[in-house]
Predict the structure.
Amino acid sequence: MTETTSKRQVRIHPEECKSCSRCIDSCPVKCLRIGEALNSMGYRYVVYDGDGCVGCGNCYYSCPEPLAIEVG
Ligand code: SF4
Ligand code: SF4
């Protein structure tokens, strides 16, 4: 059975993100983007567009910052 997108969620922890865009480049459905808001370190952190995540995990594996982005 095919996994539905609604069962997978990407969670971003804004304070851990360094705005490197690796997760954006790795996402097959392009549902991540750099947001407008800054975290306390001054980085524009990644945000989820709110729909379309297929739970592939590419963003998690491409992110160099522990805990910045999780999929589950
Ligand atoms: S898990 Fe895959 S589809 Fe979902 S946001 Fe990460 S890279 Fe994109
Ligand atoms: S790969 Fe990690 S640190 Fe880089 S923009 Fe994405 S969430 Fe932020």
